[in-house]
Design brief:
The chain has 564 residues and is of the alpha/beta class. It folds into three domains: 2-87, Gyrase A, domain 2, CATH 3.30.1360.70; 118-359, Rossmann fold (3-Layer(aba) Sandwich); 375-555, Orthogonal Bundle (Isoleucyl-tRNA Synthetase, Domain 1), CATH 1.10.730.10. It contains 21 helices and 14 strands. Strands 7-6-5-11-12 form a five-stranded parallel β-sheet, sandwiched between helices. A four-stranded antiparallel β-sheet has the order 1-2-4-3. A hairpin with a 2-residue loop joins strand 8 and strand 9. It starts with a helix and ends in a 9-residue tail after the last helix.
Length: 564
């Protein structure tokens, strides 16, 4: 509802500025602590019109004409240099009505198609904590964009042609892949062992390079070996992602672009359009503004990941209106090189969401050396910690119910902590902090939803049903009621902003603030013990809050338990 209010404010403010004969560039509207929305336009006009911002604001307000009917604006006023606008009761009523009618979201699939690539971990073993933030940010952005009305497809780009997977395939010819453990974990055991063998005997490197060349050329026997190993690893990775409530729409393999000739076409085009240096068989592309050259072909004639990536992006670009790539900070240079190279090829560049790394208090990870904590192990640990907390608080529940709540709380805590701050900020993930309700993470938001469900269950048990109500009669009587409705009204607005800026932490912040508002309301406004009229009104408000808490958690990929 806040979006409609802002649109109406824009309309009446433009009319007032035109009536007052002011020529402006931007309305400069923003949320304010002192109004429901405020404009700084007077500041921008002051220099051109040789007047004080205060006098301009007062002049504009004199020309504001608020519609007599069906308006969401109650009043407008000048406060020094600011022009402040305030909502009326209709705004509050319509907010609740839209939520009850299930219309608290933008129309779907009206804004074009977006392809988001995320996770894309090498298929040489299981996901580890270093991959989790990528996967959770990517999935969350997809959810936000879908909610905002875009047609979204998520893709996992499978690096099945790199050195790492070649090491695994080479190792699998000498070491049996275990069948008694999760497939991606069995694959990484071979990868670690094979790396140790190579470190002890560098002569094996020539065999690995030959394997890479044979796979690139499409040798049938080698292709079958690769497919067997890659599919085993991907099968386990998909299981882990499913546990995180993440599912990709499409898995795209690098090798497809090599076999179809798309990569060679990229090389030929760059040779024609770019500044390419030859060093024997190697090709190095100099890109404007980037000091480091982009190697598009090695001295041994094999192609690099980035070259194949250019072919992948050209393929993607023809299938969508926008491309979004979620990259770790170590890929910043790659993102710059991709952008410049795609420009040379007249291909639209993707939008990049670059995130800083996440670590545990114990330090860094290395798959090659076998020093890593898998995503599976991390999920096991956080669910066990969550179970300990549930077990302390809910002796009335059976073990299965406790496990189910612990699963939702544990995975929710993990997902929320990965996106609660802006992506460029480094995260140290601490189990205790993530699960602490006082820290106001996912468990805090989930508990607020469970509290709303509990109130509604208790009301039903006592025969207090959610009767149909005329929303023109639902007037908030306490400040905490009005503040809660005002926060509910901003859900769509926050989703739109997060979709526009590709900033998922804005949704996480809103979820926390909504939970805080609901808890303040619960503290100061009795529901079940209120008089008959108040109880009916407040039960509707509780029901609407439950709906929006559920919806905002769904956007974050977090399950909303009905009891905790």
């Amino acid at each position: 509802m806040f979006i409609e209010f802002k649109t109406e404010v824009e309309h009446v403010l433009k009319e007032a500025l035109e009536k007052a004969s002011y020529v402006y560039k931007e309305l400069e509207l923003a949320e304010s602590d002192h109004a429901d929305i405020s404009s700084r336009v007077a500041f921008a006009l002051a220099g051109n019109y040789k007047k004080s911002p205060k006098s301009i604001a007062e002049d504009v307000v004199k020309h504001i004409a608020i519609p007599a009917e069906e308006t969401l604006i109650s009043s407008a006023a000048a406060a020094g240099p600011y022009i402040n606008f305030y909502v009326n009761d209709l705004y509050l009523h319509k907010t609740l009505l839209r939520i009850k009618e299930g219309k608290n979201s933008t129309d779907e699939n009206k804004k074009g198609k977006i392809i988001i690539e995320h996770t894309s971990a090498n298929p040489d073993g299981p996901l580890h904590i270093g991959h989790l933030r990528n996967a959770i940010i990517g999935d969350g952005l997809a959810r936000v964009l879908k909610r905002a009305g875009y047609d979204v497809e998520t893709q996992y780009y499978v690096n099945d042609m790199g050195r790492q997977i070649a090491v695994v395939v080479w190792g699998a010819e000498r070491i049996a892949i275990a069948t008694n453990k999760k497939s991606d974990h069995a694959v990484v055991d071979v990868y670690i062992a094979a790396n140790r063998m190579v470190e002890e005997n560098e002569g094996y490197l020539s065999e690995i390079k030959a394997l890479m060349g044979n796979y690139e050329s499409g040798d049938e026997a080698v292709v079958k070996k690769y497919e067997s190993v890659v599919n085993k690893s991907l099968s386990g990775i998909k299981e882990s992602l499913k546990r995180l409530n993440i599912q990709h729409d499409r898995f795209v393999f690098e090798s497809q672009f090599v076999r179809e000739g798309a990569v060679e076409a990229v090389v030929e085009e760059l040779l024609q359009k770019g500044n390419v240096k030859r060093d024997g068989a190697a090709l190095l592309l100099q890109l404007e503004g980037i000091e480091k050259e982009l190697v598009i072909r090695r001295t041994d004639g094999t192609l690099l990941y980035t070259t194949r990536d250019l072919a992948y992006h050209r393929w993607k670009s023809s299938r969508c209106d926008r491309m979004i790539d979620v990259f770790g900070k170590d890929h910043e240079l790659v993102s710059q090189q991709l952008t410049k190279a795609l420009e040379l090829m007249d291909v639209r560049a993707p939008e990049f969401v670059i995130f800083a790394f996440v670590s545990l208090p114990t330090g860094s990870v290395s798959t090659r050396a076998g020093r890593y904590i898998s995503a599976d192990e991390l999920m096991e640990k956080i669910e066990e910690r969550a179970y300990e907390e549930v077990d302390k608080r809910r002796n009335d529940l059976d073990v299965n119910m406790k496990r189910e709540i612990a699963r939702k709380v544990g995975i929710g805590a993990l997902r929320y902590d990965m996106v609660k701050v802006s992506p460029e900020k480094h995260i140290v993930f601490v189990f205790e902090d993530a699960l602490d309700i006082e820290k106001k993470g996912a468990p805090f938001v989930q508990y607020s939803h469970a509290r709303a469900c509990s109130i509604l269950r208790a009301a039903a048990e006592r025969g207090f049903l959610l009767e149909e109500h005329k929303y023109s009669e639902l007037l908030p009587r306490e400040e905490s009621e009005k503040e809660l409705i005002m926060k509910l009204a901003k859900f769509e607005y926050v989703v739109e902003g997060a979709a526009l800026e590709l900033r998922l932490h804005l949704v996480a912040k809103y979820a926390r603030e909504l939970a805080e508002m609901f808890n303040v309301f619960y503290k100061y406004c009795p529901v079940l013990n209120a008089d008959d009229t108040l109880r009916k009104e407040r039960l509707h408000l509780v029901d609407c809050t439950k709906t929006v808490l559920h919806d905002v958690m769904d956007v974050l990929g977090i399950e909303a338990p009905e009891e905790m």
